[in-house]
Amino acid sequence: MRLHKLTLTAFGPFGATQEVDFDALSAAGIFLLHGPTGAGKTSVLDAVCYGLYGAVPGARQSPGTSLRSDHAPVDRPTEVCLELTVGGRRLEVTRRPAQPRPKKRGGGFTTEKAQSWLREHDPEHGWKALSRSHQEIGEEIGGLIGMSRDQFCQVVLLPQGDFARFLRADAEARGKLLGRLFDTRRFAAVEERLADLRRAAEARVRAADGQILALAQRIAQAAGPAADEAAPPEERPGEPGLAEGVLQWAAVARCGARERLDIAQCVLAAAEGRNASARHAFEAERELARLQQRYEETRRRAAGLEERRAERDRCHEQLSRARKADLVAPALGLWEESERAHRTAVAACERSRAGLPPELAEAGSGQLAGLERGLRAELGALDAARRAERRSREIDAERAGLERQSRSDDDTIHEAAQWLAGWDATHRSLRDRIERAQDAATRAEQLAGRLAPARRRLEAARRRDALAAQEETAATALTAARERAVEAHEEWLTLRERRLRGIAAELAGQLADGVACTVCGSAEHPAPARAEDGHVDRATEEAALAVHQRADRARAQAENELVVLRERLAAARAEAAAPQDDAGAPGAADRTASDVEELRSAVDRLTREHAEAHRLAAGTHAAREALAVAEREYAGRLDDRQQAERRAAARTSQREALDREQRALEAELVKARGASASVAEHAGLLERRAVLLADAAEALRAEQDAAERLKEADGRLADAAFRAGFDTPQAAAAKLLGDTAQRELQHRIDAWQTEAATVADRLAEEDARAAAGRPAAAPDAAQAAYDLSVQALRDGAAAHAAAQERSAELGRLSRRAEEEVRALGPLRQEYERVARLAGLTAGTSADNERKMRLEAYVLAARLEQVAAAATARLQRMSSGRYTLVHSDGRSGSRRAGLGLHVVDSWTGRERDTATLSGGETFFASLALALGLADVVTDEAGGVRLDTLFIDEGFGSLDDQTLDEVLDVLDSLRERDRSVGIVSHVADLRRRIPAQLEVVKERYGSAVVHRAAGTLRG
Asked: Which DSSP letter does residue 238 get?
């Protein structure tokens, strides 16, 4: 990797744009980067790192720090542009950090996001853009360089102070630095992974042992008393002998359970025999008691039958007489029905004769029928008279309807005449209303066109007056802000000059005995400067600078606000002075507050006129609709009057025809009514008389028929009673029973006969008679003996089942325990293997003699390479006296692996690097840094590093040693490398002609190139 050009703008102490030409500086092989303290030498290296990785080294990237220069104006963005060649490609990286910038609209600032650009140079086509993505650019640069930011800062930007501390540090501190450079996290991850695997395997073994112990507890519960025959295992989870102890103890418990099972089986067999004998004796005694009870019950039932025999004979006799009476029942029912019909006919005949005239009280049915036929003939002759009477009523109704129509038509003609008399005035009024609405719509459009400009002018006049007042206030505020900014700037410059005059005393306050000076590099401080009265420290200067920056930002913000207010005021004045179309509205522009009042009154007047015109114009449609309705009503009323006049002429002829028809009908009706008021009344009288005659004749005939049927039924009833064996029909009727009563008697008879047959069968049983001759049975005693045997059998069966279940459960749990033990074998083997590897990599195993962790072992190998590479240069710098060697010995109780010693060839002894002097420490750390750079470069894939920077430390060397160190650095040119030395040592300016000087100025630092007597800014 070779750097070509670095361009900085508003970065760190550099307020303006500065360019560093590394091609010109690298031509001499070694160049010097120098300048006063605080000028910005380290900022140049920070810019190189920021251009490559988008971040600065170490603590300078801490939160709250800003890369932007305080000397730069607000409109100049902070930017770093680095041009380099890496991997055979010439690239240009441009980066801008997140920074504030003035807002494009309004006052104040806004934060602009960080930006990045990457370009590549093509010899044929020039520069071409590659990417603007932070992530893509970072991956591209990191892949080409092959190093992280920390590695780059240690390998390319060699910080001597860090390597001096590295020489004196303990193994742990060296491990942290080497781990960060060589990225040995994967080896630490291997250690962690093996430790995790060991813990996981241990947890699985403990879990398996826990399951075995849980099975042992279940075996103890299942074994019961047998578990007390042997002591349970005392090992805990994780101990090797736990599984075998559990298996042995389970075997002892199984043997005891099997013995108890055999004993329980013998007890159960004896209980079963005693139970069988007791059951047979109990069943025999219970059967004897049953037979004796059955025989006694049969004898009691036989005695009861004899007692109920008389009742059974009576029921049989009653049922026989009832069945004979059933033969007379049909004839008896027919007689009763005939007798009821005869009584009904006699009552009906008497009622019908009661309504006849006295002269017809004894008339026969034939005479009554003849009179009824005569009245029917007279009713037929009245049909024509009834039709004439109905027609007469219809004529009356028609004449009444004609009268109503006549009155309605007269009202219509009168109303139409009154309405038509005022039609001309109504028509003219509606026409005038339409014309007024149309005129109002035209005026509303005109007023709307004048109202909008008037409102805009009024709003503009209001803004003009308000902005004029704001302009005066903003101008006053700007004057005050400018005065405060000038005062703050002068105060800061005064404090800064006072601090620079006493800067030597401030630097002297940081000196310590035995510690190299950061300016000259000397460890001796014979006459440090003293602070004078009124000395200004850095915090006071920075506080004054912050006040100045805030005042300057407030001044810029006030200027922006005033410019914006003046632009808005000019626009408001121009809009308020625009011409007005309405002649009545004010037309002058840029007036005082009275102009606003005039504009407001004009706008109010136009608003009222426009609202009134709009209200009138809105009635146009309603006026047109009213005219159309009136015209339709005019045509309808004319038509109604003509129709009414025609109907009146037609009604006159119709009324005359009805009068003639009415007179003819009246003469006919007088004859037909007779003495009645109407034909209908006369016909109703005749109809009622005919109905009475017909009913009387029919009732007389029905009474005669019923008497004949009753006589015939009497004869049949007497004959049926004689054939059934009864003296009279009344005797037969007395013996009749219903179906329910007969069924009840039959049921009682059948029940007695069934009981008699059953008793006879049971009395014939031989076993019951034999049992009755034996002594009385005692089933309760047999029951008690049987219950005792059953209880004994149950106890024996429960004991046997419990022993059998316990033996089976112990067998099952023992098999599970054996399975768990077999499954535990591979787990324990895996745990032992992983634990052995984890202990070996963690340095805690007895096999690891030096107690070195895996990461420390890898770093020790890298440190050995670094020591070998550093020795090649250290021997030249020390004239062959010193050699760096790696030591893997232990120091006290600490682990071995990262020791670093120096071998002094003058004494032949090996000693710790902390015993080197200040100058020896410098060139030893320089050699170590260069060796580390070579090893890290090889580790990164052999990327060629053509540009290196060495920061400070040369002030601690004498002239001879300085020459030897410079010879070593100069030898780097053999590999076409260039080395930049950052130092304050004045002798180096004489020895190194190619220089880059950083000059500190009031308005920001600047860089100056010096090469072989030439000066270039």
From this structure: T
pLDDT at position 588, please?
38
894 C-beta neighbours (distance < 10 Å), count: 13
Residues in CB range of 160: below 8 A, 6 or more apart: 922, 925, 926, 929, 950, 951, 952, 953
By the 10 Å C-beta count (0-12 exposed, 13-18 middle, 19+ buried), 361 is classed as: exposed
pLDDT of amino acid 590: 35
Q: Write down the pLDDT at residue 7.
A: 94
pLDDT at residue 770, rounded to an integer: 78
- CB within 8 A of 336, min separation 6: which ones? none
Query: Are 976 and 85 a contacting pair, CB within 8 Å?
Result: no
**Cα-atom radius of gyration of the chain, to the nearest Å?**
70
CB neighbour list of residue 6: distance below 8 Å, 6 or more residues apart: 19, 20, 22, 44, 47, 48, 51, 80, 81, 82, 83
Give whole-number Cα distances, 383 to 30, 187, 386, 507, 692, in Å. Answer: 157, 137, 5, 154, 21
**Residues facing residue 17 across a β-bridge:** 9
pTM comes to 0.40
111 forms bridges with which residues in the sheet? Answer: 100
Number of neighbouring beta carbons within 10 Å of residue 720: 19
Helix segments in 502-619, DSSP class H? 503-508, 538-576, 593-617
Region 678-700: mean pLDDT is 71
Average pLDDT of 25-53? 84
d(CA 424, CA 442) in angstroms, rounded, equals 28
Instruction: Write out the two tokens for 601.
Output: 């009154």
Start-to-end CA span in the chain (Å): 26
Q: Which residues contact 834 (CB under 8 A, 6 or more apart)?
A: 194, 197, 198, 201
Q: What residues have CB less than 8 Å from 648, skipping those under 6 apart?
A: 406, 409, 410
Show Cβ contacts of residue 339 under 8 Å, excluding neighbours closer than 6 positions: 710, 713
Please indicate whether residue 979 or residue 241 has the higher confidence score (pLDDT). 979
Q: Can you tell me the distance from the alpha carbon of 20 to that of 41, in angstroms, rounded to the nearest whole number?
A: 12
For residue 912, list its beta bridge partners. Answer: 901
Candidate from 483-487, 592-596, 995-999 with smallest mean pLDDT: 592-596
**Is 731 within 8 Å of 332 (Cβ atoms)?**
no
What is the DSSP code (8-state) at residue 527? S
CA distance 26 to 44: 15
Q: What is the rounded distance in angstroms from the CA atom of residue 555 to the CA atom of residue 923?
A: 53
Query: Could you tell me whether strands 99-102 and 126-131 are parallel, antiparallel, or unpaired per DSSP bridges?
Result: unpaired
CA angle 598/602/605 to nearest 5° reads 140
User: Residue 743: which residues within 8 A CB-CB, separation 6 or more?
Assistant: none
Positive/negative CA dihedral, 801, 803, 806, 809: negative
Residue 303 reports pLDDT greater than 80 = yes
* Rounded average pLDDT over 390-413: 80
Distance CA 156, CA 86 (A): 14
Q: What is the DSSP letter of 60?
A: G
Q: With CA atoms as reference, report the closest residue to 515 among 50, 164, 863, 255.
A: 164
Token representation of residue 869? 């590479």
Exposed/middle/buried for residue 802 (C-beta within 10 Å: 0-12, 13-18, 19+): middle
3-state secondary structure at position 510: coil
665 and 392 Cβ atoms separated by less than 8 Å: yes
pLDDT at 93: 95
Share of the chain above pLDDT 90, in %: 4
Tokens 């090996």 found at: 910
Could you read off the pLDDT of 935-974 as tens digits, one per residue?
766 765 545 666 777 765 565 566 666 666 666 666 655 5
Residue 49 CB partners (closer than 8 Å, separation 6+): 55, 56, 57, 149, 152, 153, 157
Tokens encoding 771: 């049992």
**Residues 133-142: contacts with CB under 8 Å, at least 24 apart:** 134/54, 137/54, 137/93, 138/53, 138/54, 141/52, 141/53, 141/86, 141/91, 141/93, 142/53
